[in-house]
Every structure is written in C-alpha cells, then in structure tokens.
Design brief:
The complex is a heterotrimer of chains A (about 160), B (about 325) and C (about 775).
Chain A: E1 5-11, E2 14-20, H1 26-33, E3 52-55, E4 58-61, E5 74-76, H2 90-97, H3 107-119, H4 126-132, H5 143-157
Parallel strand pairs in A: 1-5
Antiparallel strand pairs in A: 1-2, 3-4, 3-5
Chain B: E1 5-8, H1 12-19, E2 24-27, H2 33-39, E3 46-49, E4 59-61, E5 65-69, H3 74-79, H4 81-86, H5 88-95, H6 100-105, H7 108-112, H8 166-172, E6 176-179, E7 182-185, H9 186-189, E8 211-215, H10 218-221, E9 223-228, E10 239-247, E11 254-262, E12 269-270, H11 272-278, H12 285-292, H13 307-326
Chain C: E1 3-5, H1 27-32, E2 47-53, E3 59-65, H2 67-71, E4 75-79, E5 87-88, E6 102-103, E7 109-110, E8 116-122, H3 125-132, E9 136-141, E10 157-158, E11 164-166, H4 169-174, E12 178-186, E13 198-204, E14 207-211, H5 217-227, E15 235-238, H6 254-266, E16 270-273, E17 289-297, E18 303-315, E19 336-346, H7 359-377, H8 381-387, H9 405-416, E20 428-430, E21 433-445, E22 452-458, E23 463-466, H10 476-488, E24 495-498, H11 515-540, E25 555-557, E26 560-563, E27 566-572, H12 573-580, E28 584-590, H13 599-607, E29 623-635, E30 641-651, H14 658-677, E31 709-713, H15 737-749
Helix pairs in contact in C: 7-8, 7-15, 10-11, 14-15
The chains are: A alpha+beta (about 160), B alpha+beta (about 325), C alpha+beta (about 775).
The structure holds flavin-adenine dinucleotide (FAD), iron/sulfur cluster and FE2/S2 (inorganic) cluster (2 copies).
Chain lengths: ~160, ~325, ~775
C-alpha cells in the first residue's frame, strides 16, 4: 500500500508500533488499527466531541488529529482511565451513579472531557460545568445528569 | 481525504522553505486544515507539522503590550492572567470560541487563518460554483441558504463571513501580525473579497505567522467581547462585538473607543464610524444607540441574513454599555 | 454475543426489584469503553465501503466514470447499478407482499439529493473515501421541487385514513361566538443519534452475519433474508449496543443492501459507515409539516368546534405520513371535529420516524392554538385546559384506561409556581430579559405487540434472560433483570441479560415506546414458568432436599428456596439444581393470543408491525400523558431565547425503574427544547440540498442550553395497558415541549411564533 509510515505511539502507557498512511487520524488509528474502540466517532468533523482523548494530559479531538502528529506524546483513552478490574475513576463512578448517559455512545468522550474539565478547574459551578462540557454533544439528552456527575466527581477529586 | 506526505519541521527556516513548495500546507492544531481536507477543500500533497517548533508558543505581556507566539494554544492564551488583565476581550473571544477540546489543539496563528463556514464553500462535490475556491466559478450562496453570511464587506463575487472570534478582538486593538521580520497591521492582513475572494490575507507563499503583538492600551484593559448566537455554546457568532473604552479624567467622556465586529463581515471588521461618533461623547444610552447604528452603514443583505443588519448594532450597543461600566 | 451481568453492586437491595432505582447494568461496559457497539468488530479480512451520493435532486444518471476510482490504490471494486449483484424486493415492515421486481439500492433515476449512486470498496477506509471522491457522475438534471414551500408542489393529495370527523365542525365553527384560525409549521428535523449509521456485512457460504445498530433485529433480518433469497435463519444480526436511534435505526436501508451485496461479490467482510453528512439523506428524519387550526369556542373558552387541515412532505416515490391529527383529536372535549391530512411529494429522501412521529408536531399545533384561545377569551392557559378536559376519548368514545393529566396539571403547576404568573404578556422582566411562562400538554399512545422471552435457571443459580430485543439507552437490560429477579425471587445480581442477537428469541420493533412493556410482560411470564418448574422439581425430584417435606408449594426469596411448612431451613437454588442433577431449567414463553401462536403468525408478529394493536383496540383508550411548565428568558434586544426553568409532570403508568425512566423523559424534553429553539433542516430551494447537514450547522442543544429539569411521575399502574402496568415512556416527554416554549415566548414578548424553530430573527 502506498505511502505508509511506521509510527510509534504511546497509548495508555503502552508502546504501539503501527504502519499507517500519514492521513490516518488518531481516531481511526485507535479504532481501526489498535482495536481501541472505546473512543467513538460521532461526526469525524470536530463537531461532537465523541472522539475526545487526552494528549499529554489535555483533552483534544482525535478526529482532527493525525496519528503521526502524536508520536512522542502520551495518549490516554477511556480504556486507560482506570485499569481493568481495578477501581473506577471517580468520574466513571459518578456517571454510573447519576445515570449520566443512556445509549452510552457519547459517554467515553464525555468522561474524558469531564476529567479534564475538573482538572482544568472549570467545575466551579453548574453553569461553568455546562459551558466547559458543551464541546460534547449528547443526543440522548443526559446533560442534567452529566452536570450532577461532574459536580460530584469534582468533590471527590479535590 | 487525499493522501499527503508528512514532515516535521525542525526549525522555522525549515518550515518556511517547506511552505514555499507547491501544494504544501503548514499544520498547526489541524482543526481547520484537517476539517477542510476531509471536506475536499484542502488537498495538500505535503503537510509540514510546525507544532514541535520550540519557542513559538510564548505568551508575554509587558508595558508595550502582548506578544503571543503563533503556536500558542487558544486555551493557554485565554487563561493567561496577564492577557486577562490587559486584554479581557481577547480572553473572552477565545474562551467563547469552539470547544474546550478544540481550544486545546488550535493555535493563535491557525486561528487567524481559519476559513469561512459557508456551506457551499465546504462542499465542493455538490457545489462547483464558489469564487473563493475556484475563481470565476460563481457564488452559490448569493441566492441560496445564507442565514450566516456577511452583510458587511461583501462583493458581487463573495459574501462569505469570516467566522473567527479572536480576530474581531484583535482588529479592535490594532494587533500586528508578524510574518517573521515582516509586520502587517491586522486590518491590512485580512483582505476584502472584492473580485478576488480566494485571496484572504496578505501572506505570501513561503511566509508564516510567527507572532502576534497587541499594543497595550487603556481601552484594551477595559474591554469586553460579546457574542450572540442561536446556541449557548459551541457555535460561531451570529454577531459579536469586541469593545474597549478609555474615559477622560471625568470618568464619563470617551477619550478612546475601539470596536471590532465578528460574525457579520467578510473580514474582521473595525467599526470606525461608531468609534468616531462616540469619541469625545458621554456614554448615554441614546447617544450609544444612535452611534451603534453606524456599525452597519452600507450593509447589504441577501435574504436569509437580513436580521444581522438589525442585530449587529444592538450587539455593539450592549457591548459599549458593558465595557463603559468596566472602564 | 453480549452478556450484561449485574455483578457490580449499584444501590440498595430493594433497587433490584421492579420499581427500584437500580443503576443501569450495562453501565460499567459503557463507562469503560468496553461496550462493543455493532460497528466495532473487525472480522478477518474486512474491507471498507464508502457510498457516492447524487449531487442533484431530480433527474437521471447518464454515465458513471469509475476509472479514476478503480485505479486508486487499494480499491477492490466500484459498485454501480450496472455491476451490482441483483437482489429481490422484500416484504415491507407493514407486511405488504413485495412486487416481483428487483430491488436496486443504487439509483439511476434521481429523486433527491444524496441518493446513493455508487459505492467504492477498498482495503482501507482512507482509500475508499479518497477514491469515492474520484467517481465522476454525469447527470441529466430536471428542476426539482425542493420543499412544500415551493408553490409548484401544490396541495399534495389527501390521505383518507387520516380523516377524523364527528358532529358538524364547519357549521359549529361558523356560529361560534369566538373563532381563531392560524397556521402552524414545523421544519424538517433529524434524528442525529451520536452513533452514525452503518454496518458490517459478512458472508460465510449462504450465511450472512450483520453487525448493524438496529432497533428491530427480526424485522431487518427478514428483509436481508428476502433480498438475498436465503432462509431467515441464515441471517445473524448482532446489535448489542446502539448509540441512539430515536426512530432512525428500525428499518433496513439502501446502504445496508449495498454493503451486503459488496460483501457477497468480494467474499470479504465489508464495513460501511455512513458519514455524518450522509445521515441527513441516507434515510429521512421528520418531514416538514403544516397545520391550519380553526377553533370555535364560547366566550368563556369552552370549545365548540375544531377544524384541522394539515399536510406533511413526502418523497416523490413513496408515502410517508406524519399523523398530524393524532393529538388534536383526543386532547380536548369538543362536540364538533374535523381533521384531514394531505401529503405533498417533493424531492427529498423518504421521511422517517423521529421521536413521537405525529404526536409531536400535532401537539405543537393544538397546544399553541388552545393557548391563543386562552388569551383571546382572557383566561389562564391552565384553566382553559381544565375547562375543556376530555373525560373520555372524544374520538373513539371510549373511557381512558388511565389519564392522570389532571393530576399532572396540579402537580406541575404547584412545583413550578404557576400561580405567580402575571397574566398579561410582556409583564415580567429582569433587566434586559423578558420573562415568560408557558404551559402545554402532551400525550403518546400505548402500542402493544405480543412479546417473547427465554428465561433460564442455570445450575449455579444464575438466571439468564434472552431476547433479540434491544437496548439503545432505554434501559432494557436493566428492567428485564429487575423483572426476572422479582418474578423468580432472586437478587438482581444473579441475573444475566442477553439482548440484540437474532439467534435469541424473537422481539418486535423497539419503536412506538412499546418494547419495555411487552418485554417485561414476556420476561415476567417466562420467569414465572421457570420458577414454577423449579418449584415442581424441588417438590417432586427424589433427590431434592425438599422431597421429604411433602409440600405442595415452596417460596423463593433472595435466591433461597424454603417451604412454608419449615420456614427455618432454606436451600439455595444452586443447591437444589445440584442435588437434582439439573443443568438448567428453560422457559421460552410468548404473550401471543392463542390464534396467533401458529408458526406463520408468530413470524409475522415479530417481523412486521401487522399485529401491533392500536391504543383504542379493546374496551379502553390507552395513552400516556404529560404537561410541561416552562420559564423562558428572551433577550429584549437580541431575541435569543433561553429556557431557564422547566417542570414536567408525566403519567407513564407504572415505572419499572424510575431512575432510567426519568432519564428518558429528560432526554425527550431536551430534544423538545432543541426542536423549539434550534433544529431545522435548511433546504436550498434551488437544488434540494439540505445545507446544514452536519452537527455544526444542524444545531442540537449543548449542555449549556439546558437548565435543571424537574420531572414528576403522576402515573399509577395500568394493567389494561400492559401486563405489569406500564404505559409509554420514551416518546412521551418530547410531546408538548415545543408548544410550551412557544407559549412562554409569547407570554414574554407578545410575539406569537407559529413556525419552528423560534430563532432570534423571528423576535427582533
Ligand atoms: C467544530 C468547530 C467549531 C469552531 N468554532 C469556532 C468558534 O466558535 N470561533 C472561532 O473563532 N473559531 C472556531 N473554530 C475554528 C477554530 O478556532 C480554528 O479551526 C482553529 O483556531 C485553527 O487553528 P489550528 O491551529 O488548528 O489551525 P490549522 O488547522 O493547523 O491551520 C489552519 C490554516 O492555517 C495555516 N497555518 C497554521 N499556522 C500557521 C502559521 N503559524 N503560519 C502560517 N500559516 C499557518 C495552515 O496551513 C492552515 O491552512 C471552530 C472549529 C471547529 C472545527
Ligand atoms: S459566499 Fe464566497 S465562499 Fe460562499 S459560495 Fe459564494 S464565493 Fe464561495
Ligand atoms: S468525532 Fe471528533 S468531534 Fe465528532
Ligand atoms: S448517551 Fe446517547 S448520545 Fe449521550
């Protein structure tokens, strides 16, 4: 196949080597090449937030990031937020407790975004949470419960 | 998306010489570049990643003003305490733009160079006619769905809105775009569509934005950015205004006022007529209201966007009153 | 296969019973990224398909030049109408027998922009996408009729079965002391679930496996089987989790056929993912609607007559009906009534179902009109609703099974503080914000199809529930676990639920808000049968620990069996199973009436909607009801509307799990807020394109658009409506939201907006 390059990615603390074309997005690399399908594709245009992951600890959209761009940076996906079998991240527990999702498709993106929202110090009030969680659309309409979950998780995390 | 080769620039010089090559694009945050590549608007053969360049993401504010490296991320600039203190409108324009994720990716340089959201421009497969994409091909928006299109600075060739928020604030405060050594005042950096809507800015092939500077001013210190849109968040402006005011010692006579408009014009728009009408005046609701109407002098609507002619002055008016209360 | 178990503890023990607030049992998978949505499989050798759509809305494909695409690296085939494997037309969802013509999912005759013309299949997604852009299509274009706003579309044609009339509506209107008449319009609206559509198709011989998000596994499987002339059993469809559907994932699609054709032709698994822009044209959303409503009333506001004329858009080649008289005809007691509906063909994809099709736009009309009447006669909008309260179904002339709407009005008004409303318009204000209060009611019918379920008691005491029914967020996994746990008498943690797989017992469509009621009913019946068999075994088996007790029954509680004769000694189910040497007890049960239990009717019941009962079949008229109280703040200069406060009171009968039902209600309310203020497909009248075909331009609410929402359940169990007493939940709450907001905006501003959405230019 044409024009593939070999890249080394660090995802959830693990090193991965893969051969992809430069145009492959981080989102497609995760989902199609690494079978890390927890990160979702809702629009592929930067307009929904379902593909949110952390790069060097900050939330970004993996659909508008090339996989090659993040060589040398640390990528965290929903699968890496808490270890399998280990205790859930406080944000994950709060989402469960407050029923902050229905279909669950926007949820990994919401959770990754929520973790950042709290870390950034943007969970100070319900209105602040609403604004700083607005980059993640939820068509099921879980917003009020997402606000509750972020508010409660912020207390636990502080 | 067409395939391309990917290079990481090791130095500004490397980036510049790569940028001089045909069909080559610099990749910063990628939020415009990749979006438009997926739409089929951008089809670079080479993409040169500049995000690993050192030293281009500095944010510094001193008595002269702000010095913002082109690679500084929107989120960092928005949250910078010195920017917040010296240029609140800049911070507000940034945090009200896009989403937290996009602001963590997008750079200040890339932000200025974002392109119109005109739906016809963004869909080349369905709409071959777009003078901005293909000079001389016509304009599909003029008689189409144009609720978001510009009412100021339009031409017979193109009515596409410049969508960015930041630039509306920058144009108010006379920011300067540094292309390496060459410095271009922001108002000259952005071009009116005229008969050449494909030419959006004054940058030449082989140039790149290295820094943006904003001179310090009392007006900038007492400034605000007001953005009106259908949705509360994660949307471009229907109309927005960056306003900064400096008063005389009497605290009510306007010595200096700066007004930039977003969401209504083909380029970041300086509302000089409103400024002129208010300089030396006392901030009173009626004075402000009538002066604000001057913001849309010469405006032309194309049907769906008519409301912007009504809305923009009201946004300007409210922003003036708000910033007046700050000063 | 997806198995969801309840091992994690979530909430109190009592939460596991029906009616308890148990957290979703599929939750842990969803919050960790482990939930495997249909499109997230990669069978060995999978390749990628990308669809090429028509860029014109009307005309004919003259030629397709595929040479550049075929030459593109990685491309395996470019499908066009000329080379695609022929397939047959299938029975449609109503059960109507198919015409004996081939089914052509790729079109030559173009009737809407975005119609599938070709498909490119390549080794990678990137290659297929890039090559699809290289397919060159030559058209012969004719002028499209882009919407029913185009005068050339005319009046359309009447749909007689939509006509509802009693009394003499025209005559009564003519002499009514008070008359108002207005037109109400809703635009094209789209489902836009966050998971876009698509599928993976994989042939092994003449066995077809489909991983496809589906609201109706059995209905869709039947279509695939008929398309390819293979037995129904040869189709395996898997849809373990669905990233939202809202009506848009219930029926088979053209691209589904394309993917299955490609997979067969290439003999490789094919993944076809619809792009976000394509989700606006690969299938339809809610059609645009218009309704003219004339109300005749006494000066006191008592209704004398309703004359209702309506129309919705449909496609050029098919009939889509959005039943616009559905709420108009049952909400108020009115002695004279006439409702008629047309459909107007235009160059659009065939409209589909979007949350509360019919009821939603219907309520927008009548609930705004009644508000207008209230202002006209000068009484409170809540009082006018009570004044015209329908004590029985005015259309069917049958008693309501349950209608707790009066209770809803009272509870909602109290919680909202409706009494604080200042009666005149534009009379409440805070700074630049005009404040308005609005109220509107909603309703959704109880639809009923018989169900089926398998309940197994395994040797280790685990209870397994199995069905091809699905969970797209409504909470099916969870409430079925609760149902089985309660019926058998075990802790909910011991229940495992398997869903979304055509190899499991049948289920009808997850649509019309019917699934929860029919599935809990079927699981309840099956679980009781399994329990009875277990008890029989424990009483009769020679090796049973209860053998010597000579009991004629046993009780099961908390997974422990005991005899009323010897309450002290209890034995775990697993122990009974071990002692009696049984591997499992299985009960497969359905709730079909006797006359439908034959093989053909059984199949028809689950693969068509032909056995679905209407809400008025039988002695009662059965519906869910709700009322929404809204406070809006309208910026006096900018015309921007924000919903600042909202209280809704709802009657969905018995709630199997209030926590999850409340989530669905709030979800519906939020979609209603979007409908009221943001959502509108913007059609270019010149060429029929939906110009805002993406999530940046077709605006759905963000978190910042939604205030705190209060929902109050006023329902009581209604066992006429369903076996366990529930009524419709999922589609109810959106109904009435948009009119409540429009009414509040009128109260705030004095401006009556009768065409949705209420965008700022309509208020400045
Ligand atoms: C869904 C969505 C919503 C958005 N909403 C808003 C909004 O509300 N308000 C708003 O203002 N913006 C909004 N944006 C636009 C966003 O702010 C821009 O996409 C972003 O700022 C671009 O920056 P970037 O670094 O990602 O640029 P890139 O995509 O990397 O680059 C953009 C262009 O600039 C060129 N370039 C980049 N850096 C340089 C440089 N230093 N010198 C020369 N050329 C350079 C690139 O070659 C490319 O052509 C939105 C974007 C999306 C996708
Ligand atoms: S408005 Fe400008 S960008 Fe849009 S179609 Fe016309 S020429 Fe192209
Ligand atoms: S998939 Fe990336 S923002 Fe929607
Ligand atoms: S939970 Fe379904 S989209 Fe958010």
């Amino acid at each position: 196949m044409s024009n593939q390059t070999t890249i080394n990615l660090e995802i959830n603390g693990q090193a991965h080597t893969l051969a992809v074309e430069p145009r492959v997005t981080l989102l497609d690399a995760l989902r199609d090449h690494l079978e890390l399908t927890g990160t979702k594709k809702g629009c592929d245009q930067g307009q929904c937030g379902a593909c949110t992951v952390h790069v060097d600890g900050e939330r970004v959209l993996s659909c508008l990031t090339l996989a090659v761009q993040v060589e040398g940076r640390a990528v965290t996906t929903i699968e890496g937020l808490s270890d399998p079998g280990a205790e859930l991240h406080p944000v994950q527990s709060a989402f469960l407790e407050h029923d902050a999702f229905q279909c669950g498709y926007c949820t990994p993106g919401q959770i990754m975004s929520a973790v950042s929202c709290i870390r950034e110090g943007h969970a100070g009030s319900d209105d602040e949470i609403r604004e700083y969680m607005s980059g993640n659309l939820c068509r099921c309409g879980a917003y009020p419960h997402i606000v509750e979950a972020v508010r409660e998780a912020a207390k636990v995390m502080s | 998306m067409r395939d391309f080769s990917y290079l990481r620039a090791g130095s500004v010089d490397e980036a510049l010489s790569a940028a001089a090559m045909p069909a080559t694009m610099l990749l910063a945050g990628g939020t415009t570049l990749l979006d438009l590549a997926k739409c089929g608007v951008n089809a670079p053969e080479r993409v040169v990643d500049v995000t690993h360049l050192k030293g281009l993401d500095t944010i510094r504010v001193d008595a002269e003003g702000a010095f913002i490296g082109a690679l500084a991320k929107m989120s960092r600039v928005a949250a910078d305490p010195a920017i917040l203190a010296g240029f609140p409108a800049v911070s507000e324009a940034l945090w009200q733009a896009a989403s937290a994720q996009i602001r963590n990716m997008a750079t200040i340089g890339g932000n200025l160079l974002q392109r119109t959201r005109c739906a016809y421009f963004r869909d080349p497969a369905s709409f071959p006619a777009c003078n901005k994409r293909v000079p001389g091909s016509g304009c599909s928006a003029m008689e189409g769905v144009n609720r978001g299109h510009a009412v100021l600075g339009t031409s017979d060739a193109c009515i596409a809105t410049y969508p960015g928020d930041l630039a509306a604030a920058l144009v108010a405060f006379d920011a300067v775009v540094h292309l390496g050594e060459r410095k271009v005042p922001i108002d000259d950096f952005f071009l009116l569509p005229g008969t050449t809507p494909h030419k959006e800015h004054a940058m030449q092939p082989g140039e790149m934005i290295t820094t943006i500077t904003i001179p310090a001013s009392a007006a900038a210190r007492h400034s605000t950015y007001l953005k009106v849109r259908d949705r509360q968040s994660y949307e471009f402006a229907a109309a927005s205004a960056a306003v900064g005011i400096e008063f005389e010692a009497d605290h009510e006579t306007i010595r200096d006022i700066r007004i930039g408009l977003g969401g209504v014009a083909t380029k970041p728009w300086r509302a000089r007529a409103v400024e002129d009408a208010l300089r030396g005046k006392v901030v009173e609701p009626e004075t402000v209201k009538s002066a604000s109407r001057l913001a849309v002098e010469g405006a032309v609507a194309h049907g769906g966007n008519h409301y912007k002619i009504e809305l923009a002055p009201r946004v300007v008016e409210r922003a003036i009153l708000k910033s007046g209360a700050l000063a | 296969m997806t198995i969801v178990d309840t091992k994690m503890k979530r909430g109190d023990a009592s939460d596991g019973l029906l009616g308890g607030r148990l957290a979703r049992i599929d939750g842990p998978a969803k919050i960790t990224g482990a939930a495997d949505y249909a499109m997230e499989h990669s069978p060995e050798g999978m390749v990628y398909a990308v669809i090429v759509d028509s860029t014109i809305a009307s005309g004919r494909v003259v030629a397709i030049d595929t040479s550049a695409a075929e030459a593109y690296p990685g491309v395996l085939v470019v499908l066009t109408p000329d080379n695609a494997l022929p397939i047959k037309t299938a029975t449609d969802w109503t059960g109507a027998p198919p015409p004996a013509v081939p089914y052509e999912p790729l079109a030559r005759e173009i009737t809407f922009a975005g119609q599938h013309i070709a498909a490119v299949i390549a080794e990678t997604f990137e290659q297929a996408t890039a090559a699809a852009a290289l397919v060159k299509v030559t058209y012969e274009e004719t002028a499209p009729i882009s919407s029913f706003d185009d005068p050339r579309s005319g009046e359309g044609y009447p749909i007689d079965m939509m006509t509802k009339e009693w009394g003499d509506a025209d005559a009564a209107l003519a002499i009514a002391p008070v008359r108002i008449e207005q037109e109400y319009k809703t635009p094209r609206e789209y489902n836009v679930p966050i998971e876009p559509h698509g599928l993976i198709a994989h042939w092994e011989g003449d066995m077809l496996t489909l991983w496809e998000p589906s609201q109706w596994i059995d209905g869709m499987s039947r279509t695939y089987a008929e398309w390819f002339s293979i037995p129904f059993e040869n189709v395996r469809m898997l849809s373990p989790y669905i990233g939202g559907g809202f009506g848009s994932k219930a029926l088979p699609t053209r691209y589904g056929a394309v993917a299955a054709i490609a997979a067969k032709m290439l003999d490789r698994p094919v993944k076809l993912a619809i792009t976000r822009p394509q989700t606006f044209t690969a299938f339809g959303g809610r059609p645009a609607t218009r309704q003219t409503i004339a109300l005749g009333a006494t000066r006191e506001g008592k209704l004398l007559s309703i004359v209702h004329r309506s129309a919705n858009e449909t496609s050029m080649d098919d009939v889509a009906i959005e039943p616009l008289g559905s709420v108009t005809s049952i909400m108020y007691a009115v002695p004279n009534f006439s409702s008629r509906q047309n459909i107007v063909p235009v160059n659009t994809v065939k409209p589909g179902a979007l949350r509360a099709p019919g009821e939603n736009p219907s309520a927008f009309g009548i609930e705004c009109a009644i508000d207008e009447l209230a202002y006209e006669v000068g009484i409170d909008p809540l009082d006018i609703r009570l004044l015209n309260y329908a004590e029985e179904d005015p259309h069917a002339k049958k008693p309501w099974s349950t209608r707790r709407l009066r209770e809803a009005y009272a509870a909602g008004a109290e919680a909202f503080g409706w009494a604080k409303r200042s009666p005149s318009v534009r009379s409440m204000r805070e700074g630049k914000q005009l404040i308005g209060y609005g109220v509107a009611a909603g309703t959704y019918p109880v639809r009923r199809t018989p169900g089926e379920a398998m309940v197994r008691i395994l040797s280790n005491g685990t209870i397994e529930v199995a069905s091809s029914g699905i969970d797209m967020g409504q909470g099916t996994y969870t409430i079925l676990a609760q149902t089985a746990a309660e019926a058998i008498g075990v802790p909910v943690e011991t229940v495992v639920v398997k869903l979304g797989d055509s190899s499991l017992p049948r289920a009808p469509v997850a649509g019309g808000s019917q699934l929860a009621n029919l599935m809990t009913g079927a699981v309840h019946v099956a679980a009781l049968a399994a329990r009875d068999e277990l008890i029989g075994l424990a009483i009769n088996d020679p090796n049973s620990p209860f053998r010597d007790l000579q009991a004629n029954t046993l009780t099961i509680e908390g997974g422990q069996m005991s005899s009323p004769r010897d309450a002290g000694s209890s034995v775990a189910i697993a122990e009974v199973m071990r002692r009696t040497g049984r591997n499992s007890i299985e009960a497969l049960r359905n709730t079909l009436p006797e006359n439908l239990r034959n093989k053909d009717d059984h199949f028809r019941n689950f693969t068509t909607i032909s056995t679905m009962l209407s809400p008025t079949e039988g002695d009662y008229s059965m519906h869910s009801w709700c009322v929404h109280f809204v406070e809006v703040r309208v910026d006096v200069d900018f015309g921007t509307v924000r919903v600042s406060r909202m209280v809704s009171a709802l009657d969905s009968g018995r709630l199997y799990n209030p926590k999850l039902a409340e989530s669905q209600w709030k979800g519906g309310i939020i979609m209603g807020i979007g409908q009221a203020l943001l959502e509108e497909g913007l059609v270019d009248q010149r060429n029929g394109h939906v110009m805002n075909n993406n999530l940046g331009d077709y605006l759905v609410p963000t978190n910042a658009d939604i205030p705190h929402l209060e929902v109050i359940s006023v329902g009581i169990p209604d066992t006429n409506a369903s076996i366990l007493g529930g009524k419709a939940v999922g589609e109810l709450a959106i109904v009435g939201v948009a009119p409540a907001i429009a009414n509040a905006v009128y109260h705030a501003t004095g401006i009556r907006v009768r065409d949705l959405p209420i965008t700022l230019e309509k208020l400045i």
